[in-house]
Amino acid sequence: MWKKRLITAVTFLGGIYFFLEFVIPATIPWQTTSGIVLSVPSDKKVEVGLVSKNASVPITEKTVIKRKTHTGEIEIASPVSIHPGDMVIIKNLSGKESIGIVMPQSSQRRLILGDVTKHKMVEVRDNSLVRRMRSRGSGEVVAATTLKASRIGSADWVQIGPTTYLSAWYESVNDFFVVLGSLAWGMGLLSLWLVHSGNIRKRRPEWYLSVLFFAAVIVGSVAGAGFGAPETSKEWTKRLSDIVLFDLLRPLGSTIFSLLTFYLASAAYRSFKAKSREAVLMMASSIIVILGQLSIHPTLTTTSTWILYIINSASVRALEFGLMLGAIAIGLRLWLSLERGAFFDREV
Amino acid sequence: MDHANTQIVIATAAVIFVILYKIFSARAGREIYIRRIAGLNALEEAIGRATEMGRPMLFHPGIGGITDIATLAALGVLSYVARCGAKMGSRLIFVTCVPVLVPIAEDIIKQAYQAEGQSELFKAEDVRYLAAQGDQLALGANDLMREEKTASHFFFGTYDYTSLLLTEPGQHTGAMQIAGCRDYFQVPFFIASCDYTIICEELYAASAYLTREPTMLGSLIGQDYAKIAVLVIIILGTIAVSLGPNFIDYFEQFIGGPYK
Asked: Taking the mean position of all CA atoms in its chain, how far away is CA A61?
């Protein structure tokens, strides 16, 4: 019973950590400064320009975006290369120009521009977290003690504030689970030992393959000593490692993969039998999609694209929504140990 | 690590609240209906078939680790298959390429056989770690299908291209095969080579469907309510896009920023 309670407690604590780490920001929101770096006078101080929104500019593939570089030169930039903090000049189709600093709320479809309205000197303390914002996500964490070494500079959009510590523990918590998982490798080896030693002891059919297995384990372990050695190494373990990995395992892997071709053919043959109405529909759409790739006729290509990108995408997205919600529900049941009845006994 | 914005926090809290509310109302004794899932109904048929033929069954929980939700759902199905198999006196062979699953599966199967008073049918050797990689495992599993003449195969969990390497040889042996996979790219392969296929999200509903426990049924209903909410947001988004750029801006602000 105590083992199950321990599992329940570890599951709950692990779950609550990851949940809180996700919903609670990395820095205390009301003490966080967000803006563009103007200068870094020392490793402990950053001068931040606070930016106010002045325009929201829709962009397309045809929009010309000019970006001011660190040296003051103007370059043409693609929407994907734009980062928060970049100074840009955008000319839309009607010829109107918008100038400003790209804010983090921007997307590849719409840029939110702003101007520096205030300057603020932010002190970086030991408990501060400095994040450099990128075009996606929550930003890259910059080590607070080595601001200059991290090459943080003008045109970088940063968020600086006291850490909530949850993100700081992320790697340690992850490491804990990695260690737990690594312990299980022993169980895998034990399982292999049980099966193959039993085969040899009881002289089951093809027991000599089990002897071969143990020989392979020994050879693999010895070869492991040479893994990662420099290419120029003349050590025999390195040569053995290369033989095992590149001359044995790799070709064997390719052989297994090539089997897939034959299995694909036999599976396709079976699924192309019109056994039911659904099978006929599937067969018809498959034929259209296959022929559409061959550019036989424009109508076929259009229909094929329509099936792939309209009907197929819609159903795939619907499946994804369902999967995500299902994952939340099952995760919640496991986190709160409501699902234990499905795996073990009902009592915890 | 990414963090949630305000809208995501509200949405997460709302989904959790709905699911928990439905779980607790189901526990209070409210009647719940869920639609029939053919693949899950066929599990008993497959187990019965193996028992009648006097041959073992094979269970593979995919290639996902223990932190993979699909693997956890597969373990729920494993528990059911083991319990039914034990009840009917059938042997179950479990194969995996994830070592951490070995002790867990061993515990699940052992408890199922013990619960049905068939402890002598359980052998630790039947929980097998075959290889460290999916394709190598597929070869080992094919050999096992041939050698043990398995009558029913169950493939539940996360799969990659190895799905067909496992199920096609199984099809050739004439075994009854049931698969459940959350990766929609692999679903067509399973449909082509298995007798029954549980599609994507149905896998997450499997343990609820099989055990009929109010807790799990309640969470399924909660999940459906969350789906309705997502559907409403999709409809609002469609209307906003149709009405023009200003409405898109309003909508983007409402859902917490544009798609990046």
From this structure: 26
Name the domain count of chain A: 3
For every one of its 260 residues, what pLDDT tens digit does chain B have, with 9 covering 90 and above?
Answer: 677 888 888 888 898 899 888 888 888 877 778 888 888 889 999 999 999 999 999 999 999 888 788 898 899 899 899 999 999 989 999 999 988 888 888 888 998 898 888 888 888 888 988 888 888 899 899 999 998 999 999 999 999 888 999 999 998 899 999 999 988 889 888 988 899 999 888 888 887 888 778 888 888 888 889 889 989 988 998 898 888 777 877 787 777 765 54
Asked whether residue A99 falls in the same domain as residue A189, the answer is: no
Residue A302 belongs to domain spanning: 277-335
Whether this prediction's pTM lies above 0.90 is answered by: no
List of chain B residues whose C-beta atoms are within 8 Å of the C-beta of residue A253: 133, 135-136
Q: Going by C-beta distance under 8 Å and a sequence separation of 6 or more, which residues neighbour residue B186?
A: B159, B160, B161, B163
Cβ pair A329:B259 closer than 8 A: no
In a domain, A28, yes or no: no
Say if A27 falls within a structural domain: no
User: Could you tell me the residue ranges of all domains in chain B?
Assistant: 6-31+214-255, 38-211
Whether residue A139 sits in one domain with residue A76: yes
- Tell whether B25 is within 8 A of chain A (Cβ): no
Q: Which of residues 121-140 of B touch A (CB under 8 A)?
A: 124-125, 127-129, 132-133, 135-136, 138-139
Are residue A41 and residue A149 in the same domain, yes or no? yes
Residues A228, A159, single domain; the answer is: no
Instruction: Kindly state whether residue A124 falls inside one of the protein's structural domains.
Output: yes
Distance CA A123, CA A203 (A): 74
- The burial of B128, by beta-carbon neighbours within 10 Å (0-12 exposed, 13-18 middle, 19 or more buried), is given as buried
Has residue A313 been placed in a domain? Answer: yes
Model ipTM value: 0.81
> Do A154 and A52 fall within a single domain?
yes
Give the architecture-level CATH label for domain B38-211: 3-Layer(aba) Sandwich (3.40)
Between the two ends of chain A, the Cα-to-Cα distance in Å is: 7
Taking each helix axis from N to C terminus, what angle separates A277-292 and A250-271, rounded to the nearest 10 degrees? 120
Residues paired with A36 in a beta bridge: A49, A157
Answer for the pair A236, A215: CB distance below 8 angstroms, yes or no.
Answer: no
Tell me which residue of A165, A118, A125, A136 sits closest to A21, measured CA to CA: A165
